[in-house]
């Protein structure tokens, strides 16, 4: 089975691929991109919940660090959720300039966020949680977004 780091990093790539497809569709028209934008948002939200409800919780319980990297990642998730909602609003308003401005901002945030997770947090989680990695990956894999 994949390590926690591999599992979550692979899910980042899956979300990135959907993001790229979303931008391609949006170049055609925003109405054409509506479904794939929702698919991207759903995939990203599921990823956030795998982290927040499972990996972050396990990491915090094991290390006692609740105001460290996981707190920062949760704040960034909140920022990105807001941007994604604004993207939906831009589609509803058929405002292509606003949509692409938001996707540009979101892409930069996602790239920075994912790099911090992949290079620091996931490595720390792997060190502290490796004995429970199979159980944690199984739990993340079974997440159904709330």
Automatic annotation (TrEMBL):
Quote a single Gene Ontology cellular component term: plasma membrane
Q: Which domain of life is it from?
A: Bacteria
Which key words tag this protein in UniProt? Iron, Metal-binding
Which Pfam families does this chain map to?
A: Hemerythrin
Recall the GO molecular function terms of this protein's record. Answer: metal ion binding
Q: What are the boundaries of the signal sequence?
A: none
The family database entries (SUPFAM superfamilies) matched by this protein are listed as: Hemerythrin-like
The Hemerythrin-like domain covers: 6-125
The answer to whether the entry has keyword Metal-binding is yes
As for family, the record states: Belongs to the hemerythrin family.
Q: What is this protein called?
A: Hemerythrin domain-containing protein
Name its species: Sulfurimonas lithotrophica
